[in-house]
Amino acid sequence: MRRVVVTGMGMLSPVGNTVEESWKNALEAKSGIGPITQFDNHRIHVKVAGEVKGFNPSEFMEAKEARRTTRFIQLAVAAAKEALAQAGVNDQTPKTRFGVSIGVGMGGISWTCENTLIAADKGPSRVSPFFIPYAIPNMAAGIVANSYGLKGPNICTTTACTSGTHGVGEAFLLIRNGMADGMIAGGAESAICELSVAAFANMKALCVDSDAGTTSSRPFDATRSGFVMGEGAGFLVLEEMEHAKKRGATILAEMVGYGMSGDAYHITSPAPEGEGAQRCMRMAIEMAEIAPENINYINAHGTSTELNDLYETRAIEHVFGAHAPKLAVSSTKGVTGHLLGGAGGVEAVFTVKAIMDQVAPPTAHLETPDPALSLDYVPLKARPMAIEYAMSNSFGFGGTNGSVLFKKFKA
């Protein structure tokens, strides 16, 4: 079976517009959550989100295209540029077997809202002719491929909050099974608009303590009251190992496992005891052909919601048994908020960085441990530690689960 390695990473997130800036702030538990600026939210009690700041799409595409392209696509194009540059993929790199796999949950929902209002107010003839191309989720992958000439497999995973993790996992399988030599893989999302914020708020999923501002996202904390919406894009460049070596690429880590499962339980709530998440993590571990005890760190889905935090904890306890208390388990959503379809991509990058730098990022704002949750959640401060294997989890509405597993590279 072909080995798959990581050769590049790119990111725009609420805590930084590059991988290094985002990682530095995540390690320092510097929150990227603040007042919503992308729409007038006076009619909604939710006042904060994790927005990407200071982003100018014209730096990554022509100004005309930037004006008509939806934000989730803009973020994807920008993050892809950073990832490909680090991997050394350029105009001279053959690209017929280099593809794109980008998970997107909600696509251009703000663009949909805008054009719906235009149709109602001014009539159907005034709906933008670009509405469809820039609203459908797979256009992040399509436009990234067009922008950088990537002619290999081109897919979009739309699996709610697991979209980005499935994007990474499916790219891994394509390379492992010989259908591609390289893939840019991850997730992108920008859904901070009145409709989506109102909908999540009305279903009681969002943090109701918006007055807490930067500390609103508190995974695993007893005072948590829901997740905080975020936006961004995070990508890995995955390659077949010999292909990467032949190009002279620097290998950052190796991807060794991928698991996916369905709860078949409820449209929004996870299965009791994280039953589906258990099977998902076990699948990734079995694919890597290691024992659970080999894993040192887990970047948890850790949404800051009661049921997710509880059942992810229970799932880890079931899968890892006596090793569970020895694991470092943290949620970087404390600083980024929940990027929905983009979360898995950003968190996969953070997981690889944890291996590269041999440090577990902290769970920010974990001041009051929940007595029902018993794991080591790396509260407040980053922890230097030996990390050979690290896992990243994502779980989404509809009972869809994904886990990706990386290791420190050894030739």
**What is the residue-mean pLDDT, rounded to a whole number?**
96
Structure annotation, total helices: 13
Q: Which structural class should the secondary elements be placed in?
A: alpha/beta
Radius of gyration: 20 Å
| Name given to the CATH architecture of the largest domain | 3-Layer(aba) Sandwich
* SSE series: EHEEHHEHHHEHEHEHEHEHEHHEEEE
Q: CATH topology of the largest domain, what is it called?
A: Peroxisomal Thiolase, Chain A, domain 1
Main beta sheet = 10 strands, mixed
Cα shape:
globular
Number of strands: 14
CATH superfamily of the largest domain: Thiolase/Chalcone synthase
Low-confidence stretches: none
* Side-by-side strand order of the widest sheet: 5-4-6-7-1-8-14-13-9-10
Q: How far apart are the first and last residues' alpha carbons, in Å?
A: 15 Å
Would you write up a description of this structure?
It is built from 13 helices and 14 strands. With 411 residues, the chain is of the alpha/beta class. The protein folds into 2 domains: 4-247, Peroxisomal Thiolase, Chain A, domain 1 (3-Layer(aba) Sandwich), CATH 3.40.47.10; 258-407, Peroxisomal Thiolase, Chain A, domain 1. Strand 13 (389-396) and strand 14 (400-407) form a beta hairpin.
